[in-house]
Design a protein that fits this description.
11 helices; two-stranded parallel ribbon
């Protein structure tokens, strides 16, 4: 198992695509920070400013909300190799398919979370220099952001692996996963879906984002415990679906 994880880590960090995607994430983060902190200075009306210390949590939420990043990393880690006959045989016929899946889940989550943490750092730096107000979250709150963002990234990686296990091709898997992310976000507008919404639950476990006028536009967030259980349920469900795809897709 350790050997599988080590091999996957090597493959991820050797892929140019990982570094290109990370650069895109950092540039997008810088762009969002510019919109929230610099644009209000040149546009007099219509864009509320975000003040510290809420701005730090707000920025972290913007980064964690970039679900395309863990989804693409996850589909690259599994769907690309399932497209080749040798790896398809190893991953679907081998009794160690569960270990292969866990290795990709661990390594994709770790690499996506490291890139996410770096992007949060970029947004936090922009907040420090350009946001109004004063103060910053205490250390325990930063640690909370760390493990909460890790759980959210883990969940989206599991979803990406689930699509990969069933579709077996990078293009369709990425397209379907991104479409799911988009549709899932839109379904928040339906009151019935909010009870199980992954996007809403993710916002709830990160904290109440009532920052200088941006606030709640979709109603009250669910309680922390409910949101946490919802995210965990999504993660477990996606993992089971991914395993089932490897086990029964070609049965």
């Amino acid at each position: 198992m350790i050997g599988l994880i080590a091999a996957e880590i090597t493959k991820i960090f050797k892929r140019r695509t990982f570094w290109v995607l990370t650069l895109v994430l950092l540039l997008l983060t810088a762009f969002l920070a510019g919109i929230f902190y610099l644009l209000p200075r040149v546009v007099e009306d219509g864009i509320p400013s975000i003040a510290k210390p809420d701005a730090y949590i707000f920025g972290a939420a913007q980064v964690v909300g970039q679900t395309w990043f863990p989804l693409i990393l996850a589909t690259m880690a599994l769907a690309g190799e399932l497209a080749t006959s040798a790896w398809a045989t190893a991953l679907t016929r081998n009794s160690r398919r569960g270990q292969h899946l866990v290795a990709r889940l661990v390594t994709s989550t770790s690499s996506a979370w490291l890139a996410t943490a770096l992007a949060i750092t970029v947004f936090a730096a922009a907040t420090y220099f350009f946001a109004s107000g004063s103060g910053a979250p205490p250390v325990d709150e930063w640690l909370g952001i760390g493990w909460k963002s890790l759980l959210i990234v883990f969940t989206w990686v599991a979803i990406g692996l689930a699509f990969s296990a069933w579709l077996r091709s990078v293009g369709p898997a990425i397209g379907a996963a991104l479409a799911f992310s988009f549709i899932e976000g839109l379904l928040i507008l339906w009151s019935g879906w909010r009870q199980v919404s992954l996007s809403l639950a993710s916002s709830a476990i990160l904290g109440e984002l009532d920052a200088s006028g941006f606030g709640q536009v979709l109603g009250a967030l669910p309680p922390f415990r409910t949101a946490l259980l919802t995210v965990i349920a999504w993660a477990v469900g996606a993992g089971v679906i991914a395993w089932a795809g490897l086990r029964w897709r070609d049965a």
